[in-house]
Amino acid sequence: MSKVVVLGAGVSGLTSALCLLENFGDRIANLSILSSEWPGDYHAHDFTSPWAGANWASFAKKHEVDQIRRDKISYLKFEQLAASEPESGVKPYKLKSCFLKKEGLPWYIEQKFVREIKMITEEELNYRNLDPNLYHGVEFLSFTVTPNVYNNYLLAKIRKLGGEVRRVPRLDVITDVVSVVGLVPDLVVNATGVNAGKLLREEEPKELQNVVPIKGQILQIFEDLPYQVMVETLPKELKGRPNQFLNIFPRAEGGCIVGGIFAKGDWSNTVDEDLSKSILKVCRNHVPELRSVTTYNSYVALRPGREGGVRIALSKYRLKNFPETLNVVHNYGIGGAGYQSSYGSAMELCGIVSEVFTNRNKPKCSKL
Ligand SMILES: Cc1cc2nc3c(=O)[nH]c(=O)nc-3n(C[C@H](O)[C@H](O)[C@H](O)COP(=O)(O)OP(=O)(O)OC[C@H]3O[C@@H](n4cnc5c(N)ncnc54)[C@H](O)[C@@H]3O)c2cc1C
């Protein structure tokens, strides 16, 4: 029986913990989640999970088969949760998504993977001030997740399955986990988001460069919209910032969030008022339904980006004062896709953990 520590209580850590308990309940003696921030905390813009949109609209390119697999698994899970456990905070919504024609259509439309696909008519593109010669659009069944509801739902399930939780100050380096728990765990899951690079700086200095924040900025409005809207590349005449786009996701409890931007490498936590004005201008332009809105909050948060994409892999680190090595399975660096690929990533992590458990239980070679 194994002692498992999950480091991080964002959507990656919580989903990993839940999938581990669901799949390896008979092999885990104790699973504890250690984390400096928890669902319900809103003080840290580098604790990303509370601030997400969060919808399902895969960013995977057609050749990124691993990411496509993760996103597919999660879409199917969200579909199941929305139908059978609405208290999870996962709600089905149609998504109207518009792209430049020259960029083609996303894999999930080409593969007809998502439900209820319809092309957006020229008439609607004109209504949304998008030139039908340049843009095309699709409508399909997507999901919106209310982050705090969903993460608390995951946490409740974890505790029901015997998972323990503990708030700790931020660990300085990954091997500090041993002194914090007072033993060498059989397995550590590293789900520390945008802080993973700093945590690994001694063991794997290159990760300090690889993990990068991708700052986002969101406005929260009182007005409702019965569907989600995304415009990936904004028309030039709107004079948006580099990597600015339009995302409008309704919230299950009413109102919408409006974004946004991908500002890579920016660690700051300040709201840019000019950008807020631009986000509202873009919203008015493409969604005349929301021509007049009332903003009640605006905020920024950091997506946990990583060069090369999410890292789901096993590392073995030497420990100074112990003969054992520290087995760490990583699940960090998912950028702007942490919810929409959460189940797929966690199931992939379970595949690696299964091998770790199997190898651990293999009898050691003995001399005859
Ligand atoms: C504006 C915005 C919009 C987004 N929209 C979407 C969307 O529509 N769909 C989607 O799928 N995703 C979206 N995302 C991305 C999504 O929010 C992230 O991918 C996801 O939240 C990352 O979760 P995580 O668990 O990996 O990291 P985090 O949520 O940051 O969790 C990291 C955890 O590790 C803990 N931790 C970190 N360092 C330490 C340490 N040294 N010691 C102890 N504990 C530590 C933290 O306290 C925290 O609990 C959006 C993000 C933003 C900012």
Automatic annotation (TrEMBL):
D-dopa binds at R303, G336. FAD binds at T48, S49, T192. The keyword Protease does not apply. Pfam families: DAO. GO terms for cellular component: cytoplasm. Its cofactor is FAD. Residues 3-349 form the FAD dependent oxidoreductase domain. GO terms for molecular function: D-amino-acid oxidase activity; FAD binding. Keywords: FAD, Flavoprotein, Oxidoreductase. The keyword Flavoprotein applies. It comes from the Eukaryota. GO terms for biological process: D-amino acid catabolic process. PANTHER family: D-AMINO ACID OXIDASE, D-ASPARTATE OXIDASE. Belongs to the DAMOX/DASOX family. This is LANO_0G15148g1_1. It comes from Lachancea nothofagi CBS 11611.
